[in-house]
Queue: 4 jobs
Job 1
Amino acid sequence: MRVPRLAFFVAVVFAAALAAAPASHAQTIKIGIVGPMTGPAAPWGIALAEGAKILAARYNAEGGLDVGGTKHPVQMVIYDDFYSTPGAVAAYNRLVYEDGVKYMVVIAGISTMAVKQKAADDKVVVMTAGYIAEELDPKSHYMYRMWGPPADFFPPLIKWLHDNRPERRVVIVNPNDETSRENADLAEKLYKQVGYKVLENQLYERSLKDFLPLLTKVLALKPDMLDLGATAPQTAAVLVRQARDFGFKGLIVDSGSTAWSEIIKGAGAKDAEGVINVFGADPANANYRKFAEQYHKAIGQEPNDVLAPYSDGVDFLLQSIAASGSITDTSKFEIGFFKAAPFTTIQGEKVGITGQKKYGIKHQVAETRYVGVIKNGTISVLGKIH
């Protein structure tokens, strides 16, 4: 049943995007957008899709993306991968073999790994937001990453927690998939290195909605800190609410996700109070607020803050295509990627590219992350982590 749902979703978005593109004799640049548009992780997928459409409209209002002196209409072709490997493969196949897409943006690590070899074989450029470190390696000539995975930001985050918070007895909770298992192992290792006692490192199935049995087990160990890892936004809200209902008064950290607004909505301001979150944008940044207002105007809801880094990733991809001088020869994209840096983000920061030292290939955008605490129904920025 999934493929027909996918086909329907794509047909609707594809038609809408095509209608919005300006009339032009120049070849259209199609960008594939692959992410969870439904389900608990939908706030991420929708942020990517809507941010990408805002960028496309911006370029098209100027006549298109200028590549070698010719302005090309930009079209976003958006697929729901249902946060699954089969969904990702189905989306990839439709994008590449039916729609003729040569460039795409993929959110999830499991989706990225599912299409990594296919993209290399087909010479399709992929910009990923995935959290699996092995997405990049010295042979990943067509794979790029829009921000660092937990291997990059967990060390400074856990050091920050150690230096700024008194809690030392932690339970780690993550969904049971390739991305999260890697993150869970890394978090446990790093917590132990700086003196934390990891009482439990628990995995759960993504379909789980009632966490009381899990919480009964882990909270009986009397932790003073609960780390939600890479839990999806809506699920994070359920976990926070149910943990508080269970009587847990300790620190809750959403370390591998970015879900502070969903936690407030789903758990309520009272239960969300004091939750520490890693997130992708400073809500007080005027440039971000302006972009978020465009998003709200388009669909009538507030964005998840990954709107900023995800949209930056799409824009960096587009600017790299422009700098490469070709919309068809993806072997030139790497040259354009280097030429496009440093890149000015939505928030007005200049960011470069990295990855050579850790992953053997300089294909990662050096995007900033923030750490903050939920206070009085909003997020208060406590600092930056790189």
Job 2
Amino acid sequence: MNPFKNLNTKIVKLVLLLIAVSAKVFAQGETYESAVKLYSQKKFNEAISIYEQILSKNKESDKLYFNLGNCYLKTNQLGKAIYNYELAAKLNPKDDDIKVNLNIANSKTIDKIDNKENYFIGELKSSIAKYYSTTSLAWISIFSLIISLSLLLLFIFSKSVLLKRGGFIASILSFCVFVCAMLLGYFSLNLKKQTHFAIILSHEIKIHAEPNDLSGSKFSLHEGTKVSVLNQTDKWLNIKLENGNEGWVKSNSVGLF
């Protein structure tokens, strides 16, 4: 038996696998670039088709959602534009371009709903949910606790009065940072778990009092409006507006995120 024969076979298989993977990656990159080119040529519907095809293969990214949102905005599909901007913002909440385009799209919506909640509290919740990663807060809490304990040891074992005083004060401050990071992390995690949103995709929909077609209509909403999702069934969502109004809407008329 020739041992080199098996080795050569394995090498050939590895090379073929690398070629196949490289070809797949290249094809995906070429598809993305073709969509960008179509957008620059103002062929927005063709670009939408390609972007949706890429996303259907679970190749999501903030750039994909952002570009798709731009295409929908150019074709006056406001609900889908805002929905994709929101998905992009969820993946990359600090991107200024996403924020700007989302604000532009939101300014075009028909429904202007007053926020029943205190403005400061609402902004605080929104900021924590969007801009504070639970992972980063966890690391901050760990490091601040280590620093606090190290400074406490300095306070205990140091013979210098100045170092004792400085170590004690710094240890207390570090421990306060630890407590704040823990509380923010806990609040952010609960907020992200409990809060789900949706964007109205249809031009206009009726909000029902109960989750069935026979129930009365309470009010109407238009595309692009953002709502909180309280509960859901197979075909219906129980939604709530910022002004406190609630109702039921068919799940196929909104985009969840």
Job 3
Amino acid sequence: MKHKSILKFILFAFICAFMAASCTKEGPQGANGENGVNGENGVNGINGINGTDGTPGVDGNMSCLVCHTKAGMDALNGLYAYSGHNAAAYVSYAGGRGGCSPCHSNELFLNSLSQAPGVATIDIDYPTKISCSTCHANHQSLEDDIPAPLTLSDAVVSIADGTILDFKGPSNLCATCHQSRRDKSYYPKSEAKTFKRTFTKTADIASYTHAAVGPAGYVQLNATEDTLTVVFDVPTTHVYISSTHAGPHHGPQANTLLGYGGYGTTSKGTHASVGCTGCHMGTVEGTTGGHSFNPSLVNCNTCHSGATDFDINGKRTEFNTRMAAIQAALEEAGALHDGHPMYSSVTMAEFQAFWNFMMLYEDHSHGVHNPPYFETLLTEAETALGL
């Protein structure tokens, strides 16, 4: 009996242990219960205080009216009336011819800006003179402090020889036209030539009776004395001046300011850093400065304080005296008549003097633009002519 009781106890203990182990395993998860009731919304906070209103902006028209008032535009147009650009003669003389019109008419100037280099220009029937739209483009924005937009301000490629002309700003627009059309290598030829011309005008007959015709050239007046035949002999030691517009033609101011294009050492002038606009526009004084494009002495006084005219230190007087002597020698040589080029066959030395003279004459500043370079050109011309 005792052994049975022990056996029952052991069996009972084993069953209890087995059941305890089985009860530790987790059963399947039950279904989710229902969501609880939402709580009440909180009370809204108090609105903040409104900020102060900003200062009202300037009327949008005010930016435009800095320049475009009637009074302002009348003042600009009044000054422009004194400008050479306003002269109708420049249009009627050359404004319709393709080779000239890019600088003598509004239409062809603008057309030339859009053309690739070397594209042929065209003749036009009804050109108009240089005007506001020639130089000024449309505004790109209408914000405050609007600058006057220009049709061009980038560096310019020389028409004559491809040199880059760069005044670093608005003066590049001036250089587009105010540059030499030809360089000095345009005229001398590598082989001997003979040229024949006939003159019938009384003034021409008088001028060319004593023309410079070269070593074997000649002048022949017909029996009725109304036709003069001139044969120009041009060996390689000579140069044929082939036009009454010979020379850099016209207005080579960009070249002279930058100090190149003539016979002599190149030297960039101090005035190049001021550019065209610094002297020819700037402060208005009477009919000078601003859009008259006539140089104002007030602008010169910025650097040349106390100057009362453009003949600073007598340099213009000296320049004009030396130019008169060179002109007289070139007229004696037959390269000029009354200061203008003649058809002629001249020596290389005479041609070099002629070229420098025309460069200096057509610059029209009487020595002001680049005094050191002009001193070089004058000296070279004087030496070539034995002055």
Job 4
Amino acid sequence: MPNFQRLQLLARSLVRIESRNTDGSVSIGTAIAVAPDLFVTNCHVTARARNLVLIYGGETFPVEAQDADMTHDLCMLRSEGLRTVPLVEIALDEPQVGQTVYALGYVLGLPPRLGFGRIEAMYDYDGGTVIQTDTPFASGASGGALLDEQGRLLGVLTFRYRGGALQFSMASRWVRHSIRRSSARLATRRDDADLAVRPLAGAPFWQEPDTRQPFFLRAARLAAEAKWTNLRELAQDWTEREPTNASAWETLGSALLALEQVPAAIVAVTRSLELERGRARSWLLAGCAARRGGRDDLVGQAVSRLRELAPALLQEFSEGRGCEARSRRE
């Protein structure tokens, strides 16, 4: 069982951001204490700032410097007045699909709010991982914490689609990299104009025009809208361009299964598993397709692997719910 008391105590590692923007507006977000006087948040929260402050314990503290990784939407902020804020523990092991997770972040002017759900999918992207969950978070929580049941940081709450139906976080692998880079830069180059608080150039990858966004984001939206023919076409293009990408083959398998092209779906998802044997969602798709295609041998393999990798997905498969969710017709 999760330790809710400990998770609530982790709110002490979060601060509220107020970004006072060049147009006179104010943006609200959340930041996480990851090193002494160093906080991580989303760059889209601070992108238009002419001035940044952090609010903690009813007091306001200025941000002296900002180091931006705009592409991955992760900004590191230095505020020397907040060196004693408790630091969050960053998870070192990779999260798993089906794992229970918790979202913790401010909601506008309210104290941090805790939500919970599970990891729906994980996507390798540009040397890191993007985590898709069904864990809701609201405006103001951008930059907040995605936590495991031990209260360790798995990622930074970042963006939502379709009115919050799809939630995405930047995984802690990128956070660790940002800490290493920014700790050195912010400590040794305190007068560097590049680190001053000012409006940022560029845009995160998820705010790029649709045709320039990663395949996995376009695929997630099509799947959420049950546009299976469009998803199949996108996934076929994806597998042709990235034939060794397991996510591409898994996506193709899910689209083919939803379109009742069962033999082709088994081929696609089997290819995904040849590339990455530990993909729990691919095993779920394999079991669904195999059950409908009369492949009892593959059903047995799927059950065995899901029991090991993701018991929650195995329960869905056993109850038929996981397969129904992936077989909606257009």
